[in-house]
Structures are given as structure tokens and as C-alpha cells.
Design a protein that fits this description.
Length: 371
Amino acid sequence: MKIAVIYGGKTGEHEVSQVSASSVARNINTDKHTVSLISITKTGEWFLQPDSELERIKKDTKAILSDSATDVRICVIPGGGVKSGFCKMKDGKITPLETDIVFPVLHGTYGEDGLPQGLFEMAELPYCGCDVMSSAISMDKEKTKQIWQTAGLPVIPYITVYRSDREDDAAFAAILKKSERDFEWPVFIKPCKAGSSVGASKATSREEFIAAVDEALLWDDKILVEPFVEAREIECSVTGFRDITSYIPGEIIPTHEFYDYDAKYIDPDGAALKIPADLDDEKIREVRDIAIKAFKALNGCGFSRIDFFLDKKTGKFFLNEINTIPGFTNISMFPKLCEASGLPYDELLEKLMAIGKERFDAMRSLKTSRN
């Protein structure tokens, strides 16, 4: 197959995407497949990287893919009359870049939020991962919680705060009062549409609450306030289209105050990953079952990582969030959990591409006209 790996993007998780995509590209079997590397800069420009870039990161397992400008730009032309919706632009000429499937490794905004997925759909490009609707909903933590609640699944209580609330002194005072009434200190405040704990803060007082709200609003116009739960952090990988599979759960044991961006990506000792999680068989079955239900409730397809809190006092699971393009770095939980269940990294990539093709073929078999 001809595979296009896309990474980078206009997102606070740009550098994480580069690291994840490096692992993905490095582990695709190039004896079977041809790989094209498409980088998206922080300003949103798309460039085709040279073949030497793939050779470089395959030779050096610590190398990170570049997102530098090249002399070949990439555009996507829906209905352009070419075999693939990807086109190369060089020296004023436009030529097709044949692609059998797209592997987007775009974390966060402009990646997991349904925007590139909609572009791929319009261009009739098969792609790995969740579709437009499930990506867009899953990116919004409030909407995700609302759907899970409707499905009868357990979530942490929350208060939604809009930018307009912060700009209205009376409304913001009411929200602060409600938080103090319903939740004890500390509370966690995070953007609704950001991942990797970007913009997330812990507040133990009114002053910290205000500062945390202002920080979160730098990343999104809508944010969440959630109570602190003394809990273990359990994660579960899920794959599939119509036949959904969940994998052995793992546990994040952070050494930081909470599992923030630095703990995830900067500090190599920021957290310990315990795989499998120290749970009895009944709890393992329970978390895997909830993960599948949570994925299906959002109409998920392809792959995702479902994150849980396990309340240390009650032993009850709470859904925290879903990541529709989870980390693929060498220390990321998603591939590690699959591997612990007997699915090695390279076979996982093959499976995800096969699922992407399966969904594409199924959707294209549906009628779009009465004639």
C-alpha cells in the first residue's frame, strides 16, 4: 500500500505529534508498503518530506521527524479528478500523490477534532482512526461526558465555564460559589478541546482558581471545572470498526503532583507505566467492558485510548476522557497496552490500516442517490 503519514499541525501538541509520527513511520514495514511523509507546520503549511527523511529516522531510533519547509507543497483537492486527493505542487506544476490510506498522527486541535477527517472524506481518501463525528465529539470533553451520561456510563461531576462567564463578574462569581459549594478544594480546571494536559491546572484556593481559569481560556473558549478524586489512573486501548476489541488495561503512576504535560512528555521520570494494571480479574473485565461501551457510545471507529479514574475509596471506575489519536511514542500507553495483549507495534499498525480500509469500503458501499 501507499501510505501517507501526516504529522505536526497547528496545535499545542505539535512536538508530541512529531515524536509519535516518528515511531509510526519507523515501524511501518517498507518491504510491503511505500511511505510518504507529510508535515504540517505550526502555521498550517503542508510539505512533502524527502525520502531521505524516512531513511534518517529508520537508521536512528532516537531521531525525530522534521517539519521544515521543502520545495514540494501538498494540497488536498476534493473531486479533483485525480486518483488521490493529495497533490504535489512544485515549480508551478501540480501532480497527484497516489495514496491508498492516510495515517494521521495529529494530536489535539486541527487533528483529533474532525477537521482533517472531513477533508479526507471530501477527497475520498481512506484514513486510520475515528470519523468526523466521533472525532469532533470526542475532542469536546463536555459533549463526551454528556453522551456517556446519557448512555448510563460513570463520569466525574463537572461545571462548564464559557469565556463569556469569565467576562461577566456576576456569572463568574456564581460559578466560583457553585464550585466551592459542590466540590471541595482542590479542583482541576482544563480546556474542553485540548489534549496532553495542555492548559490544565490544579487549584487549591480562589486565587489559584482564577489563575487556572485564565490559563485554560488561553487554549479554549470553553473549559471544565472538576473535583479532585483520590484515584488511580487506569487506561485501556480500544480498536475496531464493527467488531470492537479492548486490551489489557495499564496504570499511570505519576511522580508529579498530577499527570501533566511535563510528566507525559518532558520528564523521563515523570510517571511509571504499570502494565498490566494491578487489578483483579473482575476489575479488568469491568474496565474493558466499560471501555468498549464508551467507544461505541461515541460511535468510535479505528482506535482510541480510554482513560479512567479508579476511586481509591469506593473502588468505582469513572470515565475521564477519550483520546482518538493517542500517543504513539516509544513510551506511550496505547501501543504498549496492545503489545501486552499480544499485538506487537508493527502488527498494530497493519491492523489499524486494515480497519481504516474496511470502514472506507463500508461507507462507500452505501447509497448516496435514489437514481
